[in-house]
Amino acid sequence: MARSTCISPLAWMRVTLVAIALCMADVAAQPGARQPGDYPLTADSRVQAGVPHGRLEGPFEFHSRVFAGTVRRYWIYVPVQYDGRQPASLLVFQDGQRATNPQGSLRVQNVLDNLIHRGEIPVTIGLFITPGNRSAHYPDDLGMSNPDHRAEEYDALDDRYARILVEEMLPLLGARFRLADDPAQRAIGGTSSGAICAFTVAWHRPDVFGKVISMIGSYTSIGYRPAQDGKPLVPGGDLYPGLVRKSPIRPLRIFLQDGANDLDNEHGHWFLANQQMLAALHWANVHADSEGDRGPRYDVAHAWGDGGHSDAHGGALLPDILRWLWRDGPTAVEPPAG
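Above: the chain sequence. Below: its structure as tokens.
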């Protein structure tokens, strides 16, 4: 997959930095006009008059064979425009209880309604999944909180979560809907640990998912476990920049978002970790170019803001992120710059 033809990676970086600088200058010039981390949703994320609403089915319960003893919930979004005559594109989003929250920062189903209606992205089926919980049934009182098996699934670097999707969930979905087989028509996304989870799935299975949405990604050491009691060391997500630099390039289109006031704790520094990811992806492309490698390149864009560990900035950008991910059409679309 080639890098964007509309603007170079270095130009993206310059555009983003300039946009942030202008934003900061504007805040300084107008005290009280905006606080760091304030990112209101645009009309693209809100219910619009005259736009037909797709149906959100669920929640359904699912017991995985890969993570025995856990249960998760999932929802399926079906756009009004889907009629089964043509295979639909696919968007999978982690932490599905928050992604579909009608009062939350993401409101993914509203964004899909609006963008599909205007033909700005293809007809897309949505699959929204919670992490697993160690129980016979998913607790009704969890609300937007995290189930208790989230870290074991989302912050691990192995392929077990990818297997849940590829071996269990997608066949379940495919039994009801015609889905595009082309990985370029399949996106996976999430926020925080859900973001690194999305990246891990695409890292292991780029033949299934070719697009990644990473918001406030936890490319930190949450999943790290030292070697002890005869058990081997378990790596954490802070290993990813090195893996990206030392591994063959996957044909992935990736959008990274984070804020300068994101977390800094015993697991790592989120904003620095996301910048390391961006630097590693760009370096991999430059190195492949210098070696005359005729293989794929990472197609990557980013937006850095001034938010903390919040979905707000990513939610405000989501419509433009989806447009950029599915920009292959008659009109070039530049990546959102924050």
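Residues 183 and 246 are 23 Å apart (CA to CA).
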